[in-house]
Amino acid sequence: MRPTTNYTARQRESEVATATQIAEGQDYQAGGVLSVSFAHATNDTYTSFLAPLLPALITKLAMSKTQAGLLAFLQSSPSLLQPVIGYLADRVSLRYFVILSPAVVATMMSLLGVAPRYAVVALLVILAGLSSASLHAVAPAIAGRLSGTRLGRGLGVWMVGGTLGYTLGPIIVVSAVNLLTLEGIPWLMVGGWIASAILFVRLRRVPAPPTTIGDRGLFRAGLGALRPLLVPLVGITVMRGLMVAALFIFLPTYLTERGASLWFAGLSVSIVAGPGMVGSLLGGSLSDRWGRRRVLFVFMLAPPLLLFVLLMVSGWAMVPVLVALGLTIVPTQVILMAVVQESCPDQRALANGLYLSLAFLTESGGAVILGALGDLFGLSLAFTTSAVVLLLSLPLVFLLPTGGSVLPNKAEPGESAEDEHPAEVMR
């Protein structure tokens, strides 16, 4: 049976034709990619509220670090649905998930300041996570289709949106707490509503059409294309999860324990995320030119070494180390997303949903484990463990398929896009 949709047959045919023209032309659609990146930026601005608010919520609700880490897990738990959402997105247009997500996430995360008990906080982060999971399952595939042969660049721009959100979010929410108190931050949800209105105007006609593969074989084809990647992809993502949790969830808590103010502790996440914008573009573009594995290895080696340095310095000497960490920790996800989409070009949303589901769940699971280690042994030892585990994952890079994207020369007139850049280079 075909899924029921609100689209007429003519609208459906028009979207498929538009997407086909984009795919055949292999043009980089800058306006569409930037609009999707804006959706990512707004969404992640609000999802990033959790980490800088944790010190205040721990004090207000008398939470343990394990309970704090569990909130990050609950926020990412709806990511289990991303493969299902991605499967649907490869068959029907789900652009409104991208359009509405900023408004929903903004509402849920802004209400954290007035949540009276832990259970309410947990419910709010789950609802925010569900909306965010919908955006992350659909939007990268749209960005990938609009990027043509510049897949690394397009996904780098997508990731810039997220890192911009993680840069601005902590600054916004910590400033709001200082000015309005914790109970005054619900006013921040208005920004998400405005962003969704803008996205409606910008994205309502961006095509996200079904593929030409039969419904019954779509899921099987996607899993089959990803099978050669599963061992290194799962291994790298799982072993990276602890360090991501250290930098993006527990860093403010770690710094407050070392005597930092709530303002500086919250700002630390922005200091890490800000350079991640440059890292996203740099990592994606370099992997387009020099190959995925080679660039991935470098960006996986640097962060644990830098984390060891961070644990040995104090005060303002931490700032340049945090900047370097942000520059090197983010590109890994950009490159892995490019590998996944190149391996599964006809089911991008499904493949992307499977990967991001794995990434978010392992990172949030890492937050629970890191919180438990922090309760038992202290966050310094927990951070050290995360760095050692990431170093141990480096051999898995060599299990990824060889090759990867290498930027083609400009095609001569009459030369096909397939001739200048095979779509299945990663297979």
What's a concise summary of this model?
This protein is mostly helical and 427 residues long. The chain has 19 helices and no strands.
Describe this structure in words.
The chain has 427 residues and is mostly helical. It has a single domain (25-407), classed as Up-down Bundle (Growth Hormone, Chain: A), CATH 1.20.1250.20. It is built from 19 helices and no strands. Helix 3 crosses helix 12 (251-257) and helix 14 (292-312) runs antiparallel to helix 18 (379-392). The radius of gyration is 21 Å and the shape is globular. The two termini are 31 Å apart.
Task: Note the main sheet.
Answer: none
The geometry reads as: globular
Low-confidence stretches at least 5 residues in length (pLDDT < 50)?
A: 1-25, 209-214, 409-427
What is the domain total for the residues?
Answer: 1
| DSSP helical segment count | 19
Instruction: Return the CATH class.
Output: Mainly Alpha
Q: What is the structural class?
A: mainly alpha
Mean pLDDT over the full residue set: 79
CATH topology: Growth Hormone, Chain: A
Gap from first CA to last CA: 31 Å
The CATH superfamily turns out to be MFS general substrate transporter like domains
Helix content: over 70%
Helix and strand sequence: HHHHHHHHHHHHHHHHHHH
CATH architecture annotation: Up-down Bundle
Radius of gyration: 21 Å
* Percent strand: under 5%
- Beta strand count: 0
